[in-house]
Structure to design on (504 residues):
């Protein structure tokens, strides 16, 4: 029997990925159909399962891919087809998001639905601008309204006379295009011209911009700054608190657009650390990891890993592939025996430790040459070694260990291939908006980036994780602005912060 469908009206929050609720993430991951607005953070699309149908309803200001009526019909149709449908809406679906209308359509059609609130830009935006919408020294009342109507059209459901007289903070959205009319209507109805007002554009994202003025002059300021939608406005003396608690816009990488080219699975660690520091991160994976061509040979080597004196790991990917294969053959970790374990760097060592194995050797320099130097301090003559590696790895480790008298078997755990999917439109965004920096974490990410044929953005620099990556960049005619030391993700993050700090 065919299961009945359901539609979830889900708030995607104001833009910062960290402000999406756990329930929203869970539903996006399970969705058969995702119907989303243009204001949703594009990274949310990466949470969907394979085969999820993604439909852009594209609502932004006057630019709609689908009309509201078409969207209503679509979510009813897909739900009635037995699908789990997520209707993803920026902010909160019930705060000027027309979620109530969509819920009514679903109810009328007899479609089961659930409403998942999200953080609205009306409160999240001011908070990220350092403006508390309520504050015991300023107000005991908060009024939220939409600026979507034009107060000069002769009639309006917005009572500006009442709004002007109301005490406390007023917050409005969707009114930047009518800012002069709205502020004028407030003043005409008795509001003091010197009343503070702040506008925050692209709130909670790294493109966030805030302007501050008064009811009398904010329209002039907005025109001078070419300040457009989407924005949230706050009217009231709480705006003055921004001078003390403006926290978001003061982070070290705020306003910097940084491209991450790691694989989609690995991008998270670097992306998160950069976002936490205020960067606008564009994830543009240039490679993806696939199984080795000879999977049988790989499996056999893993099965016999307990026979080796040393296991040598030179990437977190290799660690993950090795132990996934190992535990699919052996349910008991003790089956690995007692080989000593070497890791090329801290990132690889950390991944090994996730499987509850200790690391016996980490070089001072996190490169192949550094690993060989570390082994020179060990006695490895006639010892057997299993080197877990990528198909494309350089021969430095094999040659170096062999020269030291070791007996080395190469265990090809994976291969890197070009990433062909671009679900978030990162390539188009890079081409249109440019970037301040593109980061590279391996020679293969460099080669495959240039294979994309994208024009290098004007004023953009390259950030390199280590010497091999740097050399590959130079071969493509783009010398790196810096090279991370140590050659790992924390080292790369620190180097990025240091670089932009010097630029100021």
């Amino acid at each position: 029997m065919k299961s009945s469908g359901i539609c979830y009206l889900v708030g995607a929050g104001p833009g910062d990925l960290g402000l999406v609720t756990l329930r929203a993430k869970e539903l996006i991951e399970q969705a058969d159909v995702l119907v989303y607005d243009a204001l949703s953070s594009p990274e949310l699309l990466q949470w969907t399962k394979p085969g999820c149908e993604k439909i852009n309803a594209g609502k932004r200001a006057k630019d709609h891919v689908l009309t509201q009526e078409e969207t209503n019909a679509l979510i009813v149709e897909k739900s009635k087809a037995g699908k789990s449908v997520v209707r993803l809406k920026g902010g909160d679906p019930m705060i000027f998001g027309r979620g109530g209308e969509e819920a009514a359509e679903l109810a009328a059609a007899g479609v089961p639905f659930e409403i998942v609130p999200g953080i609205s830009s009306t409160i999240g935006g001011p908070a990220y601008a350092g403006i508390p919408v309520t504050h015991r020294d300023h107000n005991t009342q908060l009024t939220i309204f939409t600026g979507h109507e034009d107060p000069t059209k002769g009639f309006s459901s917005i009572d500006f006379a009442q709004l002007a007289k109301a005490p406390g903070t007023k917050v409005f959205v969707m009114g930047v295009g009518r800012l002069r009319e709205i502020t004028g209507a407030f003043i005409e109805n008795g509001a003091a011209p010197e009343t503070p007002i702040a506008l925050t554009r692209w709130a909670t994202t790294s493109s966030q911009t805030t302007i501050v003025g008064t009811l009398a002059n904010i329209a002039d300021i907005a025109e001078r700054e070419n300040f457009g939608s989407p924005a949230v406005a706050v009217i009231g003396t709480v705006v003055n608190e921004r001078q003390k608690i403006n926290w978001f816009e003061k982070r070290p990488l705020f306003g910097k657009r940084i491209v991450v080219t790691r694989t989609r699975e690995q991008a998270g660690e670097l992306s998160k650390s950069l976002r936490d520091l205020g960067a606008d991160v564009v994830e543009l994976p240039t490679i993806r990891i696939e199984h080795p061509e000879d999977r049988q040979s790989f499996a056999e080597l893993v099965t016999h890993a307990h026979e080796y004196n040393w296991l040598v790991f030179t990437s977190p990917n290799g660690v993950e592939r090795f132990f996934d294969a190992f535990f699919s053959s052996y349910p008991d970790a003790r089956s690995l025996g007692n080989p000593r374990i070497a890791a090329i760097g801290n990132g690889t060592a950390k991944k090994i430790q996730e499987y509850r194995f200790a690391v016996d050797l980490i070089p001072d320099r996190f490169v192949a040459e550094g690993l060989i130097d570390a082994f020179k301090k060990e006695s490895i003559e006639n010892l057997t070694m299993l080197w877990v590696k990528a198909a494309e790895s350089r021969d430095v480790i094999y040659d170096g260990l062999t020269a030291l008298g070791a007996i080395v078997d190469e265990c090809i755990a994976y291969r890197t291939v070009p990433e062909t999917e671009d679900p978030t439109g990162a390539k188009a965004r890079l081409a249109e908006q440019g970037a301040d920096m593109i980061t590279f974490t391996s020679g293969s990410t460099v080669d495959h980036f240039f294979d994309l044929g994208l024009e290098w953005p004007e004023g953009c620099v390259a950030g390199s994780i280590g010497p091999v990556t740097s050399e590959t960049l130079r071969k493509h005619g783009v010398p790196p602005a810096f090279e991370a030391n140590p050659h790992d993700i924390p080292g790369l993050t620190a180097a990025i912060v240091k670089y932009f700090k010097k630029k100021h």
In short: The chain has a mean pLDDT of 91. The chain has four domains: 6-119, 123-250, 257-286+420-503, 290-418.
